[in-house]
Amino acid sequence: MFNHQKIEKKWQKIWEKKKIYNAKDFSKKPKFYGLIEFPYPSGKGMHMGHLRSNTAMDIICRKRRMEGYNVLYPMGWDAFGLPTENYAVKAGIHPKIVTKQNTDTFRKQLKSFGFSFDWSR
């Protein structure tokens, strides 16, 4: 039986080690900056809206790389907003703790989908 999860993890590990999605400083290639709104870590996991917007921009960034562009596609978190604070209050957990837990979960989920973010930025 075809085990796609095993194969995906293998190649994701190789690509991460080779840093193939990291933008190169001082490259002579034309530049492209792909950015989506950084998610609020205001839940225990991502929802379909996150995945939809990430997928759309990931397609564009991959296409630009194939066209010869030096692509910067960063990922981060909008962790200082009211949604995260409200979630922490509702959950009864300090905002610093809930932010760390949720960003760790979000990062793990995003990496499992194989998005081509430059995680070094």
Portion of residues within helices:
40-55%
Beta-strand percent range: under 5%
Mean pLDDT across residues: 93
Structural class: mainly alpha
Shape: globular
Low-confidence stretches: none
Give the biggest beta sheet. Answer: 2 strands, parallel
Q: Report, as a whole number of angstroms, the end-to-end distance.
A: 38 Å
- Work out the radius of gyration: 16 Å
Query: What order do the strands of the largest sheet run in, or round the barrel if closed?
Result: 1-2
Protein model, in words:
With about 120 residues, this protein is mainly α. It is built from four helices and two strands; from the N terminus they run H-E-H-E-H-H. The chain has a domain at about 45-120. Helices cover about 50% and strands about 5% of the residues. The chain is globular, with a radius of gyration of 16 Å. The mean pLDDT is about 95.
Descriptors:
mainly alpha, 4 helices, two-stranded parallel sheet, 2 strands, 121 residues
In short:
The protein is mainly α. It contains 4 helices and 2 strands, in the order H-E-H-E-H-H.
